[in-house]
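User: Predict the full complex structure for these chains.
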Amino acid sequence: MDNIAGQKSSLTWAVHISVVVLVVLWLLPTVGLLVSSFRSADQIATTGWWKSLFPQEQNLVIRTERPDAQEFIDGVYVLEGNLFELGDAADGVVSVWGTSSREIDAYSAGETADLGDKGLLTIQANGDYRFENQSEFSGSRGQRVFMTAVSPPSFSLDNYRNVLFSNSSSSSMGKAFINTLTVSIPATIIPILIAAFAAYALAWMDFPGRALLVAFVVGLLVVPLQLALIPLLKLHLGVGIGKGYLGVWLAHTGFGLPLAIYLLRNYMVGLPKDIIENARVDGATEFQIFVKIILPLSFPALASFAIFQFLWTWNDLLVALVFLIDSSGDTTVMTRQIIELLGSKGGNWEILATAAFISITVPLIVFFAMQKYLVRGLLAGSVK
Amino acid sequence: MHPAIQGLVTIIFGVGGCVGYFYFSNIVLDKVLFPARGVHAGRNINRANLVRPWLFLFPALAALSLYLAYPVVETLRLSLTDRKLDGAFVGFANYSQMFSEEKFWEALSNNFLWLLVVPAMSTIFGLLVAQLTDRIKWGALAKSLIFMPMAISMVGASVIWKLVYDARPEGADQIGILNAVYIFFGGDTPQTWLTMPFWNNFFLMAVLIWIQTGFAMVILSAALRGVPEETVEAAIVDGANPFQIFFKIKMPQIMTTVVVVWTTITITVLKVFDIVFAMTNGQWETQVLANYMYDKLFRASDWGVGSAAAMIIMLMVSPILVWNVRNARKEMR
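Assistant: Here is the predicted structure of the two-chain assembly.
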């Protein structure tokens, strides 16, 4: 803790360990989803994701090739191939196997089993098998083989390929991704500009009612946007904007402004007075002062707000549901798409996990790249 | 037109329009209406400077009034009218109908439960992490990892946690880590955590606590850094142990920040919608006000009761609103 005097090493260890525990606790849920998004539907449904990082012992039931694939070599009929390939299973190492469900460990790898008039079956550790018989193989199906195999961890990008580029409208995240981007970029840029001008007026211009306006903005900061849904939807439908991108951009702009003005004003008030007064004395107009001095100096605050607004619009569900998504579903955003998947494919974890991760990736990149500004914005933005 | 191109056009028009508006309105003000020359030069400059703030403020004020202030009034009006009767004034009929619904009381009591638990737990965890990571070398990394859920959407977080809470039939390998741990420590049957009335509320709250702890941690960590070194040193010299230093020296000095964090999370909790919508949709007694309101507005199409529910949320927020405004005014002076 406070290592100025009387440092206790046991306490330091306790601190380190508890932080590790907390971090693991906080990371585990996300890691679980990330790992799952690289596993196949079968893998997810049969074993916990935490086991996928280690070699897995699994019991497989695979059939040899059908009798019509047999060849006649040196006086015997032969079926040959690799069981892992046949069963579409991940490669592994066979330890034991059997041909009956009651004795799945009757033989070990490399042994030859005498199946009487069915023939001789040999299975190697790598899954290669050789099935030979004096008489011709008959029937329509291959011999069933039960085997216990240890497979190394296996991951693939198949889920991402399916979810991003499949054409079925129910699970295509590709389009929703573009839509989300279309919503969030204008909805981030426009409020910044409007707010910056207003914040400058509130910070550096003297006029009656200024304090009242600041109080007004602070008040609006906490107004739940739930209140705005019906009146604004009515308004949008009334003036002909309807449901669509324009509506959602306007709504996000309106809802983002209080925080934007508040953040930027707090920052601008702290800028050195001398610079602005000097510029005024030198005959710069307010517009010039704003564009050439205030905006460049306020970059950190602008960046903070831009991150907030981007994360908020990207992650938003409610505003999109109300102002954007119409019955055609062409304008659906990723959050909405995930809700749909939760409803229709609640059990398909491979699709859900992948879809969720696609929507999470962009905010996470923004987060880790610009964390400094985010923290700064949070510190300035919480009302003191 | 492809929406992405439409978006680009909007950015150009929006940004261009804004810049154009500010630029030209300033020129008109300075050159046409009140030119700073001739006999009235001085008077004109003063007048221009009286008008200019409003030029700068106009777009923002218009948007704020239309998108936030007007809806408060309009929602209040809607809550007193009935849509089926062509918006006739019905007094408090919507409210009394709402108060007679069991689902509303369920939502209200759940909301209070959320208000009690989530801000408290988030603040406590945030404080714990802030204090623990304060002096360790990899503290910044630890903080950034715990802060990370802030960037994840509540919908994404819901999916993440649904996997944690997943339950498979008895005897099968559990894929939800909570059930796996439960079975590992001797639990007999796997539990479907989200359908357990009352307790499932806490499983939903865990998601929001998970998200909000990072926020609390960032703010409180800065506050802890702001505690003057001398006070801590003096306490050490006087023989205080680390716990005494924390509770008796540091805590009193960061109390105002703790209150700020608490109220900010409280507001978030009041608005919580996505988590409940995505994970249970209010079934199994997990309804909350925001989701109840959404149900009324867009599923039952009952704008009257929906607006009444929205007003209840507003009512619960207003003490914080008043408190914030008062503080802001104090600071301005």
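DSSP finds 15 helices and nine strands in chain A.
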